[in-house]
Amino acid sequence: MVANTPRVRADLKVTAAEEDGAKCFDVVDPTSGLCVRIYELEWLIAQRMDGARSFDEIATWAQQRMGSLGVKVTPEDLARFAERLRASGFLEGEPVAAVEPAPVPVAQAPVPVAVVEPEPSRPNKVSDPKKLKALMQTVGDTGSHPVINAPETSRPTGQAVDNMKDFFRKAPLEEEEAPPPRRRGASLSSGVISAIGIVAVLTAFPVLVYVTFLRPEAVAKVHVHKANPEELTDLYDGAAAIHGIEPTSLAFTDAGKIGVVVARGAEVPKGMQLATLEAASAGGEDLGHLQRRLEFYVKQLATAKASGKAAEIDKAEKKVAEKKSMIASLAHGEPAQQLMSPTAGKIVDVFVAPGGMVTAGQPILKIADPRLQVEVTLGPGEASAFDKGNPVSLHAGGRFLSARVASIEGEKIEIDVTDPAAKNGDEVQLVKRHLIGVVTVPAKAVVKRGGVSSVYVLTGGQAKARVVTVLDRMPTEVKVSSGLGAEDVLIVDPPQGLQDGDKAIEVP
Q1: Contact residues for 196 (Cβ-Cβ < 8 A; gap 6+)
Q2: How far, in Å, CA of 184 to CA of 491, rounded?
Q3: d(Cα 450, Cα 465) in Å, to the nearest integer?
Q4: How far apart are CA 37 and CA 47, in angstroms?
Q5: CB distance 359 to 251 below 8 Å
Q6: For residues 429 and 417, what is the distance between their CA atoms, to the nearest angstrom?
Q7: Cα 353 off chain centre by
Q8: 125 vs 407 pLDDT, higher one
């Protein structure tokens, strides 16, 4: 069964101080009035005893910071350490007896710091204030308040590490057994040397605890630069000139007589009637002409009958019947044909006046299309990305012009330029892609987090992870299309193992 830790009291008041160049804290027990000066980070392990964490969890945390020094910390070691804290009255659940506060040295007047409002205190008592003071001077305490800007120290010696190993295996505070009596004749120098050794160990022990076990979390030193979003434009190879569309001649598919026709110079919309063609016979004859021909053949038939020539009578009768049929067809046949405008434009020429006779396919008028076009030739397979009617963009000397695909033939694309700013003769290139807000970052700044491309930005003294969209990746740089803004400070060289929320500081 995994045992949970006891809970450290949350009502201790803390002020900052400094002693021999090391940051300290003066911790005041508001119940007993006791004031003890201790090193900054010596209370970190005690802070983690919150009643919720297990000894196994804290042992794992401690081992991560001390494993490199060869110190093994077990849950049993921490349980014994907790008993020391309990004996000193720093754990919840036991009353604390009032004792005289220890004086704060005048030369080391405490500097007030912000104090977090404590949870409601529970009365505690310390059975032996002398043991409490001894423990605090040896082990130390920083209260339940955040540890800020801890001083850095050097790596401990091998002997110091051995002492640290012994420290976590001490039994709970008990009455020390009396040492065996010193033999008569023991030299005075031997006793002095032993005393000096004990003093040295006691003096160095808080620093030893600080360095090996309660060392502050590392602050990553990083290089940064501010994100600079830019526009990114990729173009297809090859430039082409915008040109106008040649005027188009229009004609009827049948012969006949022109009824009405639009005037030269007229501006016409698409689908407007431009001319009409009156009904005509299959041979191209109009009604009046057929009536005159009918009269001629009627006279021929009368002459043939008068002469009694059967062959001439038969021929004349057939012609009369033919003309009558044609006249009947014209009188009750199809309505006049209409010539419609295939596009909006301007009539630049009219070749036949109203009433004029025309043959099938004879030009009636000429219309000029006001549209501008450009033809581009793409590389193999590139035209397959387009369909007729697709909107596209053209790049012309820093400007972007709107356009639309008119037709596709192989790798050639005919494009209608619809932008009113376009001019005949402009040199343009077809735009492959145009993106806004693209940030170019060093390739080493982009890392994988959970299989997703990410970067780190420096904000509020922390490295914060950002998911980004990689647009292009090159050997030394990467183009990112989303995830970074103009105000972001990018970490260009995130150290290995950097995590979201880790402390970080910019270095030149």
Answers
A1: none
A2: 70
A3: 12
A4: 17
A5: no
A6: 12
A7: 68
A8: 407
83 is written with which tokens? 């008993």
| Single-letter amino acid code for the residue at 15 | T
- In the chain, the amino acid numbered 176 is E
Contact 48, 34 (CB under 8 A): no
User: How many alpha carbons lie under 13 Å from residue 184 in its C-beta half-sphere?
Assistant: 0
- What CA–CA distance (Å, rounded) separates 39 from 18? 9
Helix (H, G, I), strand (E, B) or coil at 51: coil
pLDDT tens-place string over residues 411-444? 999 999 999 999 889 999 999 888 888 999 999 9
**Cβ atoms of residues 496 and 483 within 8 Å:** no
Which letter does DSSP use for residue 67 in this model?
A: G
Angle, helices 75-88 vs 55-66, to 10°: value is: 110
Q: Are residues 25 and 16 in contact, defined by beta-carbon separation less than 8 angstroms?
A: yes
Of 23-32, 141-150, 199-208, 481-490, the one with minimum mean pLDDT is 141-150
- What per-residue confidence (pLDDT) applies to 87? 77
Give the largest Cα separation in the chain, rounded: 185
Average pLDDT of the segment spanning 91-107? 47
**How many other CB atoms are there within 10 angstroms of residue 91's CB atom?**
21
pLDDT(388) > 50? yes
Closest CA to 490 of 441, 448, 437, 450: 441
Fold of 221-230+436-506: 2.40.420
Bridge partners for 454 per DSSP? 447, 467
- The answer to whether the CB of 333 falls within 8 A of the CB of 257 is no
Q: Could you give the percent of the chain with pLDDT greater than 90?
A: 32
Domain ranges of the chain: 13-174+189-212, 221-230+436-506, 280-333
Give dist(CA 255, CA 277) in Å, integer.
Answer: 8
What is the 8-class DSSP label of residue 356?
A: -
The string of pLDDT tens digits covering residues 330-355 is 666 556 688 999 988 999 999 999 98
Residue 118 DSSP one-character state: P
* Amino acid making up residue 428: V
Helix crossing, 129-138 with 75-88: angle to 10°? 130
Q: Which tens digits make up the pLDDT trace of 215-228?
A: 456 799 999 988 88
Of 90, 127, 98, the residue nearest 31 (C-alpha) = 98
Residue 50: C-alpha distances to residues 53, 87, 146, 226, 401 (Å): 6, 17, 14, 41, 66
- State the pLDDT at residue 443: 92
Contact indicator for 35, 107 with CB cutoff of 8 Å: no
Q: Give rounded-to-5 percent helix, strand, coil for the chain.
A: 25, 30, 40
Average pLDDT over residues 479-500: 90
**Residue 490 bridge partners (DSSP):** 225, 457
